[in-house]
Amino acid sequence: MTIVVKLGTSLIVGPGGRVRRIVLRERAREVAAIVRGGESVCIVTSGAIGLGLARLGLERRPKEVPRLQAASALGQSRLQQAWDAAFAPHRVPAGQVLLTAIDVSDRAAYLHARNAFTALFRYGAVPIVNENDATATDEITFGDNDALAAQVAVLVQARLLILLTEVDGVYTRAPGTPGAELLSEGDLAGQAVLGEGSKLGTGGMGSKIVAAQMAASAGIPTVIAGGHGKDVLAPILAGEPRGTRFRADDSGVPAFKLWLRFGKPAAGRLTVDAGARRALVEGGASLLAVGVVSVDGRFEAGDAVELVGPDGAVFAKGIAGADAKEIASRQRGLEAVHRDRLVLLS
Ligand code: GLU
Predict the structure, then answer these.
(1) In terms of domains, do 226 and 275 share one?
(2) Final residue of a domain: which of 205, 229, 255?
(3) Is 287 found in the same domain as 247?
(4) Secondary structure (3-state) at 6
(5) Closest ligand 1 atom to the C-alpha of 133?
(6) For a designed S-S bond to 47, which of 12, 19, 169, 253 qualifies (C-beta 3.0 to 4.6 A apart)?
(7) Can you give the C-alpha Rg of the chain in angstroms?
(8) How far is the CA of 209 from the centre of ligand 1 (A)?
(9) What pLDDT does 190 receive?
(10) How many domains is the chain built from?
């Protein structure tokens, strides 16, 4: 079984833009012990941009994408070196895997990425994953490393996702304010979004809860916990009360449908009539073009589209069987989305 552990920028990058080597050393020691125990671990690490900013002499994160790309290129090499050094004493090899959103949006590429992880695990290696920020832009990005970690957890079919951060978990109100209490169990439906992103990273508690939600619907539980100190992962795996735990949904969702839901971005929207919605949700039918009342976006056959009911709510996502123009023609007998290439969202 596999565990995905994500560390945020504030855990990795210390004052003056230096690597917090002690954090990396402690986590590498724990990860090596887990690997020796027979499980696989994948680390998702932030910090490339944070470390790169220091090399550029910048204190704050710039807004311009090219400057962020440059910072990440300069920081990523340092980041990987630091993880290599942290794992070296344990004789566990750490391999760098840089993903872009495109790597998971295409089904074949998604399977190639999965094969790469599987091969690394077979060698007893620990993949050190980050987004390939040097080529990512606003349009093609996972959003943040919390989302990336959840995607990776789905990709490697992890049994647990652990999001490590500066704070000890999810609090009832902003940590440090009077009356703030740590929640041991997270409630995905009613969770208040607490805390802003830090100065160098992008995440914040909100994006961690979204990541937990994504993992939960793929049948993967999540723990959000503090990443400092000697024993962090071992107590979490032993089930001791640490951080905030989010339960997984009972999921028998096939891998293809998880990819469709989380990996592949939607290129358009089809609004369908009440009869078509019922046939899809209750009858497990395919969507015919005659049931589509409006088409938004310019997409080709093979792109993903969201399906919207007459109430305006998105209820499914599927792979378009024809392009936007053809579907808008509402030609009789034309299949807009085949039922095997469709995932219902709730
Ligand atoms: N991939 C970014 C980095 O390594 C971090 C993104 C995030 O903060 O979530 O710097």
Answers:
(1) no
(2) 255
(3) no
(4) strand
(5) 1
(6) 12
(7) 21
(8) 17
(9) 54
(10) 2
